[in-house]
């Protein structure tokens, strides 16, 4: 179970999830230089949205039939919240000093988390989430759960879709332009407000996908999964190069692999026996962040942030 | 953290006429774009040098290379014979101060506080000194305030010392930026479009100010679009077009250089540049001083009109691009 | 008497509207005499009602059943009603009370009437709701309700200073798409004209009074402040705390609206050290003013929390660095102190440092971590600091939780923490024992309160001295525009690191005391956000809510944020939600916080300008006396 290929595979899976969430952070930061702290909760509410759809479907519905509906449900929730946040919480603060939208984001994150805790029935404990049948599948020495397969497939599809969108569609290119130089983009006739909303929406959608995948993988969701995941995901975004969507996914994968290898192998290093194990995984992720910031602060693939000097 | 107030040797002690700033072979590349191509520029002490060129020619980028905001891809910049380190605060410490194209005052600090911040690099009291508040601290603070007020009086803003800088009218904000830069006791002052957005009276006043600064022993390198301002003021003018230095020399040489005229100045005596700026300039000149009225010959009037028209054109163009 | 130049106010902005444009108009159209009469009738009725019984059962806390003797919430209505009456008479021009309306405006009366109305109706509704029906109200309750309503109507009919008429050509871009809809614009315009406006009315200069009178006023204000705060802290049940809050908020608002607050600011500005001394004495008197250990405990915690917030204020408020894991520095200090405290659970149980050494240890430990975290991160873009500090906050708790010898080397004793921390003994005075001072017994918490008060004073001194100096200016310059600041010769990284390290060490200092106060140190409180303070989100909110960059702002913010969940127990479940929502709303509508740093308020409200009068005295002109005790 603790073989290297297994750890790498585990890291890949969890990393894909981080990557999907990280995309939302990185897109928003690239354009408006805002760390959307609420994004972690958007991921969480997406998961709950999917769960809500499931609980309201008639008993005995096949999971395969329900899946697209759940995705739709989660996506609607996430995207709506993301767009509302942009419109009502962040946009009015566009000209304000940097601290203001950051604090708003923190408040929003808290409020969203608590809202689910208070008003989603039974959310104070973990809610069980349906899982995909079948598996675990074995490829060589690696064991793969069906939830993992869904996760990786979803991540791949989303990335390809996003890459195509950004490269070829008019809106995608407009997004690139806005990310590089918002003032000039505006002068060129690009409706930067609309672009920003789209960025939030795409981020929200990806977060919903991640939320659904998380539920399928772990078989449960809880109101507080957003905070940790959000922190990790932003770390991943920084790792890969903030503002860079490919960097976000790459950063996620790197982080995931680092985490799972650290949990498994650090205890084998002489003198560090007690520093391995699950609870220390987060510590090593943090250390990785610090190291990257020291050594290559622009991230693995380089930053893509608007120059607002 | 010592409490010694260290004062820069006054610029009068600097070698006269010798080279103060020497930029050689400065090249600045951003990815595929070369913004500054192999530019050499020297500023000698006691000089006022102008840097002109169309928008996008790389003038501000060049400034940024001089002051360490950008690290030049190639080339060196040295001040008083020593190569400048690529960190803005060290450049200022060495004695080169600057203003910005878009005003960057500390809007929520008072006028006096802005100037006091400018003086930061010439004093040494650190946190410990501030906490203990010994006699050295008080002496240094008093000296700083005194010096700051001197500069404000020199600039003409002393009576507004306690106003918040964001409340100053535009022209005074520009003056405050200059005052703030002066507070670091530079030997060389870099001015980036100091008269942008100013009316003709304010522009003349700024001209006087720059002369006064030069008389204090501080050399000046100024980027401007207002041709009259540049040619009145500068001992030498360098022309930058698309990152390259086209020509450098006295005002006359530059004004008559064909390439410069073609690329930038336009035909000097033709046409009626019937701009709003024209009438205003004439009005200002009428009230301005003996010089303008004494030379009220037809030729010079036309020249003045043409220059003003061009300047107004440039200014208009400039403002369009700014927003 | 000469007028105080208007800008000496600690609150906002002056519009540059000419006085003739200012309007005085009542909200309810009544002739002046009628309005005054109705107001006074309302006052009398309200006061009379408080002597009646409002309910016949003692199930409602505070015993409102007695006729002839106001109890519980009736006292609040009584006090508010009397204040309203006094201010009304002052505004009407009654000799001897005219000093209550130095700006000759009736706005304060309206605000006090509102406060009285609000607290009374809250009481009445609470009675009905909790006891199950209006039948539980005695006639006294109805008299109170009607009386305060009459009072409010009367006050609304008084000539109120209002915002000037809107420019008929004004465009309201803040309405967004609605700004082209005539109905929406008309409605918005009507709302804007509805607002009362009293900030630019001139008031007489109080420094013309004889010196001893000025100092007496300051002393009385400190005493009153102490009483009010003690009363508030000692409120035993939710309803009365809410009523207290309502009355206090409206009373302070009214003080501001009458111009009295501005005069008081002028007084304290003229007698800075005296005012500060009075404030300190008031804070000192607090544990002597009430004997209950529980309230001394409250006091200590507020001081600790407030001091930590003040440290964060240096990092966030002055320098503009967003630190989201600040509470970890508090924890580092606490653990460091615990380890050297001689506790049997410490791995160095043989060591017992005297207090000064423990404090230095705590500060040094936090300083080290501050530098470790800051050095790599402060060179980078500012937003990265937020994430790194957030991570550090989380990591701290995890690490400390795991260093229990099982999942990590044995240092901090894991989730059980280090307990049985012995009490401090300073110069032979054991803080754990009760001591009798005169007729008053100082219990354990009272002792620690006094120690913490001393430390708070030191931290305040550090803050003010640092802020108003070369290094403080460089911090603010960095916050305002880092590019320009570096162009002025400021070494951004160095200056930011100093701020960050100083903030961390101050938190460490507070942590040292906190370890001894709570007997033990455990990992669980050191989170980003949680139900009980201290946690990083609360600290950040205390600074933001209280007022960034000011001295008393963070302390006030800390006090409020600590007290409100403590006192309003029913809110426990909704606390974090309300809290998050509050952050969003504050940043949207009043980002400068409660005590505005004159500068920050202008930063956020771009349409107003400030005409300078007196030389600005520093970031806030509210004296320390309103903090703490």
TrEMBL record, chain A:
A single Gene Ontology CC term: plasma membrane
Membrane topology: Multi-pass membrane protein
Main location: membrane
Superkingdom assignment: Bacteria
Subcellular location: Cell membrane
Gene3D superfamilies: ABC transporter involved in vitamin B12 uptake, BtuC (1.10.3470.10)
Transmembrane segments: 12-35, 63-90, 102-122, 142-166, 195-213, 233-258, 279-295
Keywords from the UniProt entry: Amino-acid transport, Cell inner membrane, Cell membrane, Membrane, Transmembrane, Transmembrane helix, Transport
GO terms under biological process: D-alanine transmembrane transport; L-alanine transport; L-isoleucine import across plasma membrane
InterPro entries tied to this protein: ABC_BtuC-like, ABC_transp_permease, BCAA_transport_permease
One example GO MF annotation: L-leucine transmembrane transporter activity
Pfam name, any one: BPD_transp_2
Protein family according to the UniProt entry: Belongs to the binding-protein-dependent transport system permease family. LivHM subfamily.
Annotated protein name in UniProt: Amino acid/amide ABC transporter membrane protein 1, HAAT family
Native source organism of the sequence: Actinacidiphila alni
Automatic annotation (TrEMBL), chain B:
Compositional bias of kind Acidic residues: 314-323
SUPFAM superfamilies xrefs: P-loop containing nucleoside triphosphate hydrolases
GO BP annotation list: D-alanine transmembrane transport; L-alanine transport; L-isoleucine import across plasma membrane; L-valine import across plasma membrane
GO cellular component labels: plasma membrane
Domain ABC transporter span(s) in chain numbering: 21-267
A Pfam match: ABC_tran
UniProt keyword annotation of Heme present: no
Biased composition (Low complexity): 280-313
The UniProt record lists the keyword Nucleotide-binding: yes
Gene Ontology molecular function: any one: L-valine transmembrane transporter activity
Keywords recorded for this protein, A-Z: ATP-binding, Nucleotide-binding, Transport
Lineage of the organism: Bacteria, Bacillati, Actinomycetota, Actinomycetes, Kitasatosporales
Residue span of region Disordered: 271-323
Name recorded for this polypeptide: Amino acid/amide ABC transporter ATP-binding protein 1, HAAT family
Species assigned in the record: Actinacidiphila alni
Xref: InterPro entries: AAA+_ATPase, ABC_AA/LPS_Transport, ABC_transporter-like_ATP-bd, BCA_ABC_TP_C, P-loop_NTPase
Automatic annotation (TrEMBL), chain C:
InterPro entries noted in UniProt: ABC_transp_permease, LivM-like
GO molecular function: branched-chain amino acid transmembrane transporter activity
A GO-annotated cellular component: plasma membrane
Domain of life: Bacteria
Topology of this chain in the membrane: Multi-pass membrane protein
Subcellular location: Cell membrane
Main subcellular location of this protein, as a coarse class: membrane
Keywords on record: Cell membrane, Membrane, Transmembrane, Transmembrane helix
TM spans (from-to): 37-56, 76-97, 109-128, 140-160, 216-234, 240-261, 273-289, 295-319, 326-347, 353-375, 382-400, 446-464, 497-517, 537-562
Record's keyword annotation contains Protein biosynthesis: no
Name of a matching Pfam family: BPD_transp_2
Designated name of the protein: Amino acid/amide ABC transporter membrane protein 2, HAAT family
């Amino acid at each position: 179970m603790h073989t290297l290929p297994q750890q790498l595979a585990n890291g890949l899976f969890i990393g894909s999830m981080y990557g999907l969430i990280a995309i939302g952070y990185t897109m928003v930061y690239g354009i408006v230089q805002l760390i959307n702290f609420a994004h972690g909760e958007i991921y969480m509410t997406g998961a709950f949205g999917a769960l809500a759809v499931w609980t309201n479907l008639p008993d005995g519905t096949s999971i395969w039939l329900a899946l697209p509906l759940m995705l739709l449900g989660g996506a609607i929730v996430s995207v709506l919240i993301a767009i509302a946040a942009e419109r009502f919480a962040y946009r009015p603060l566009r000209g304000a000093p940097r601290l203001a939208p950051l604090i708003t984001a923190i408040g929003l994150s808290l409020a969203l988390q608590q809202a689910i805790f208070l008003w989603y029935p039974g959310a104070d404990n973990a809610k069980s989430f349906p899982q995909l049948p079948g598996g675990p599948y074995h490829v060589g020495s690696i064991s793969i759960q069906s939830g993992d397969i869904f996760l990786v497939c979803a991540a791949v599809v989303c990335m390809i879709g996003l890459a195509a969108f950004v490269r070829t569609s008019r809106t995608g290119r407009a997004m690139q332009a806005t990310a590089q130089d918002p003032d000039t983009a505006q002068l060129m006739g690009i409706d930067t407000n609309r672009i920003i909303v789209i960025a939030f929406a795409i981020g929200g959608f990806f977060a919903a996908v991640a939320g659904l995948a998380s539920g399928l993988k772990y078989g449960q969701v809880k109101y507080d999964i957003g905070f940790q995941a959000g922190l990790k995901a932003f770390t991943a975004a920084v790792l890969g190069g903030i503002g860079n969507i490919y960097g976000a996914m790459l950063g996620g994968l790197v982080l995931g692999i680092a985490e799972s290898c650290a949990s498994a192998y650090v205890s084998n290093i002489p003198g560090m026996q007690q520093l391995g194990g699950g609870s220390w995984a987060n510590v090593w992720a943090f250390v990785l962040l610090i190291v990257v910031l020291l050594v290559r602060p622009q991230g693995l693939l380089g930053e893509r942030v608007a120059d607002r000097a | 953290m010592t409490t010694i107030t260290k004062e820069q040797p006054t610029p009068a002690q600097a070698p006269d006429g010798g080279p103060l700033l020497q930029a050689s072979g400065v090249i600045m590349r951003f990815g595929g774009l070369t913004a500054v191509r192999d530019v050499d520029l020297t500023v000698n002490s006691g000089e006022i040098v102008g840097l002109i060129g169309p928008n996008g020619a790389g003038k501000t980028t060049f400034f940024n290379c001089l002051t360490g905001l950008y690290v030049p891809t190639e080339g060196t910049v040295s001040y008083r014979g020593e190569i400048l380190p690529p960190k803005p605060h060290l450049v200022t410490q060495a004695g080169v101060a600057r203003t910005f194209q878009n005003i960057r005052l500390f809007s929520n600090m008072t006028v006096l506080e802005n100037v006091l911040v400018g003086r930061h690099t010439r004093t040494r009291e650190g946190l410990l000194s501030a906490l203990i508040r010994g006699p050295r601290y008080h002496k240094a603070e008093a000296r700083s305030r005194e010096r700051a007020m001197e500069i404000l009086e020199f600039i003409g803003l002393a009576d507004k010392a306690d106003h918040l800088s964001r409340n100053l009218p535009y022209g005074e904000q520009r003056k405050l930026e200059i005052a703030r830069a002066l507070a670091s006791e530079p030997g060389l002052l870099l001015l980036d479009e100091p008269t942008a957005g100013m009316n003709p009276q304010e522009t003349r006043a700024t001209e006087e100010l720059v002369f006064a600064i030069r008389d204090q022993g501080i050399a000046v390198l100024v980027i401007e679009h207002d041709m009259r301002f540049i040619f009145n003021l500068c001992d030498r003018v360098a022309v930058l077009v698309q990152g390259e230095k086209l020509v450098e020399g006295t005002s006359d040489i530059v004004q008559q250089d064909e390439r410069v005229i073609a690329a930038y100045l336009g035909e000097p005596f033709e046409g009626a540049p019937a701009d709003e700026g024209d009438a205003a300039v004439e009005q200002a000149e009428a009230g301005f001083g003996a010089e303008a009225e004494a030379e009220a010959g037809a030729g010079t009037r036309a020249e003045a009109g043409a220059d003003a028209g061009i300047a107004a054109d440039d200014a208009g163009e400039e403002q369009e691009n700014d927003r | 008497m000469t007028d105080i130049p208007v800008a000496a106010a600690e609150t906002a902005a002056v519009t540059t509207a000419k006085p003739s444009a200012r309007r005085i108009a009542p909200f309810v159209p009544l002739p002046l005499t009628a309005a005054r009469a109705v107001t006074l009738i309302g006052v009398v009725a309200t006061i009379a009602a408080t002597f009646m019984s409002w309910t016949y059962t003692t199930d409602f806390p505070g015993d409102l059943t007695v006729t002839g003797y106001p109890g519980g919430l009736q006292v609040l209505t009584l006090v508010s009603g009397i204040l309203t009456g006094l201010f009304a008479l002052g505004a009407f021009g009654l000799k001897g009370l005219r000093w209550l309306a130095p700006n000759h405006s009736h706005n304060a009366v309206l605000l006090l009437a509102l406060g009285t109305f609000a607290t009374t109706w809250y009481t009445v509704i609470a009675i009905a709701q909790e006891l199950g029906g209006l039948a539980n109200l005695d006639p006294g309750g109805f008299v109170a309700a009607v009386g305060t309503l009459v009072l409010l109507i009367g006050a609304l009919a008084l000539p109120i200073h209002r915002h000037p008429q809107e420019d008929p050509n004004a465009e309201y871009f803040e309405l967004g798409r609605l700004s082209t809809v005539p109905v929406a614009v008309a409605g918005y315009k009507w709302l804007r004209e509805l607002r009362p406006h009293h900030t630019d009315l001139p008031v007489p200069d109080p420094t013309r009074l004889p010196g001893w009178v000025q100092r007496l006023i300051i002393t009385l204000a400190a005493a009153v402040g102490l009483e009010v705060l003690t009363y508030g802290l000692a409120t035993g049940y939710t309803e009365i705390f809410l009523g207290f809050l309502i009355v206090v908020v409206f009373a302070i608002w009214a003080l501001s609206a009458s111009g009295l607050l501005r005069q008081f600011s002028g007084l304290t500005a003229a007698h800075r050290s005296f005012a500060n001394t009075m404030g300190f004495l008031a804070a000192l008197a607090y544990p002597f003013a009430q004997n209950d250990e529980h309230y001394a405990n409250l006091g200590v915690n507020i001081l600790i929390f407030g001091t930590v917030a003040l440290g964060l204020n240096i990092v966030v408020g002055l320098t503009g660095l967003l630190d989201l894991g600040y509470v970890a520095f508090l924890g580092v200090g606490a653990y460091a102190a615990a380890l050297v405290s001689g506790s049997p659970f410490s791995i160095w149980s043989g060591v017992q440092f005297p207090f000064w050494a423990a404090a230095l240890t705590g500060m040094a430990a936090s300083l080290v971590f501050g530098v470790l975290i800051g050095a790599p991160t402060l060179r980078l873009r500012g937003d990265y600091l937020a994430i790194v500090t957030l991570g550090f906050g989380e990591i701290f708790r995890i690490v400390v939780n795991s260093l229990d010898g099982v999942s990590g080397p044995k240092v901090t004793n894991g989730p059980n923490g280090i307990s049985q921390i012995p009490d401090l003994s300073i110069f032979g005075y054991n803080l754990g024992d009760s001591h009798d001072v005169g007729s008053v017994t100082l219990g354990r918490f009272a002792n620690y309160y006094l120690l913490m008060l001393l430390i708070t004073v030191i931290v305040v001194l550090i803050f003010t001295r640092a802020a108003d100096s070369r290094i403080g200016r460089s911090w603010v310059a960095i916050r305002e525009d880092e590019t320009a600041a570096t162009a002025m010769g400021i070494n951004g990284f160095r200056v930011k690191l100093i701020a960050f390290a100083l903030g961390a060490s101050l938190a460490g200092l507070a942590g040292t005391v906190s370890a001894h106060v709570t007997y033990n140190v455990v990992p669980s409180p050191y989170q980003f956000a949680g139900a009980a303070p201290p946690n990083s989100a609360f600290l950040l909110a205390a600074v933001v809510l209280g007022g960034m960059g000011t001295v008393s702002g963070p302390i006030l913010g800390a006090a409020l944020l600590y007290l409100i969940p403590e006192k309003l127990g029913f809110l426990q479940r909704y606390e974090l939600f309300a809290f998050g929502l509050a952050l969003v709303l504050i940043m949207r509508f009043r980002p400068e916080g409660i005590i505005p740093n004159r500068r920050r308020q202008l930063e956020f409200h771009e349409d107003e300008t400030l005409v300078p009068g007196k030389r600005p005295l520093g970031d806030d002109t509210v004296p320390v006396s309103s903090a703490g005790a």
